[in-house]
Every structure is written in structure tokens, then in C-alpha cells.
């Protein structure tokens, strides 16, 4: 198990290298000049060139990337072009907001999706099954930003139940968490239903029922436990996406998280800040995937034997 964890952690190195190189090159190819954006339209060409030289933007792209990675290996994520603050301070001050929102949205989606998927499988081809699958289809198809805007119009502007933006108190979490969690709930529910349908048709379930095991116990203790692997996989992927993909939701609700910070940094071509946000999101996604793999071992002893 320890060797497996070490191998997975070491695999983060090429992933981070690939992500940072790709983002760095895309930001370099994007139109616009960071120096001009910082100085404003009234700046002279001499001022722009002086700032570019000071920021090291006149160096070849590969030289800039290597310099960044050397500093990164020393634990330095660079300095923001816009705020002149260390990137690490800015990113890690925003990370708790994104983390908390992702956890709340993940808990909400899991608590709603798993019972919905189990009931849809148990009541296959009934009215409840059809309704649950329609809800899941809508959730998968609906854009997050569109749902977020509808929730703002309905519950913030018209009813005034929840704040429109910011992260002040538990009420601020409700609408962003629903926006993020609804799509994830749909995916988890569909996967749980499919996995449960395959499991409840197995011979050991019929044998358990024939021996007098109550239907509820057969579903919960036997079928669901053996159908957990696909559900855990989807839950892990969705949680990783929540941590790294809450950009639209944070923008709509003006949430002070990493996603909104990254959008603002892209607009101002703040390359160090964008790279810092992407590195943190990449590490979070990889760590979540590692935790999911370790969770497999507790659910299925056969997988634990493979890790040993």
C-alpha cells in the first residue's frame, strides 16, 4: 500500500509539468500584452518596454518557463503581475472558500443521488424510475451557469431568501452548492442506478432472498455494497471536478474562490497567478483520485490484495 501511494505521488510530477507547460504556452499565445494591461491605455511604448524588461517578458518563452519551474521547485509560485503579492498567499487565501463550497456541494449531491439511484433501480420501469431519470437527464444537460442564473432570479431577486453574491454565512452556500451539486447529483444517480440494476440480478441476491433475507437487507447489505465501486469512482471524479471546475459558479455568485481568481487573472494575463491556480487545482484533483483508489481497498478486499 505504501509503495502504491508513493508511486501515485511521484506520478504528480509529470502531470504538473504537463499542465504548467500547456497553460504557460497558451497564455503566451493569447492576444494582448500583460505590461500594456497593467499600465493602461495612456502608457507610452517606452514605459511598456521598460516594464516588460522588468517582468522578464522579453526573454524567450522557454527561458521564462524554465525560470518559473526553477522557482517552483524552490517552493516559490511567483509574484502576481496585477497585485504584486506572492501568488501562494493569494491562492491559499482563496482556496478554503473553493474547498468548503466543493465539499458542501459534494455532500448534497451524494446524499440526494445515491438514494435516488437505489430507488430507481429497485422500482425499475415504474413512474418513480422514469421521473428520476428525467431529472438526471435534465441535470446532466443543463449548463451550470444557466441554473445559477435561474436560482439567483428566483430565490435572491424575487424571493430575497438568499444573498446574490459573496460568502457571508451559511445562506451564501445554498445557491452555489445547488448549482454545483445538481449536475453531479444527476451523474451519480444514473451510475448508481445502472450499477444496482446489474447487481440485483446476480444469483447471490436471488439466493439471499430465497433464504428469507428481507428485501431491504438484501438491497442495502448485499447489492449496494457490491455496487459501490462504480459509484465511488463517479463520486471521486465529480468531487475532483468540483474542486477544479467551479469557475462558472464562482463567477456568477462572485464567490471569493480560486475559480473566480483564475478568471480575473486570465483577463489581465497574470500568468503566474493562472499557473498557481492551475497547479493547486491539479494537485487537488490528483489527491482526490488517490483517495478514491485507496477507498477501493476498503470496499473490495480483492483490490486491497492487489495493492499489498
TrEMBL record:
NCBIfam families: Opp2B. It is found in: Cell membrane. This is Nickel import system permease protein NikB. The complex is composed of two ATP-binding proteins (NikD and NikE), two transmembrane proteins (NikB and NikC) and a solute-binding protein (NikA). Keywords: Cell membrane, Ion transport, Membrane, Nickel, Nickel transport, Transmembrane, Transmembrane helix, Transport. Residues 95-296 form the ABC transmembrane type-1 domain. It holds the Pfam family BPD_transp_1_N.
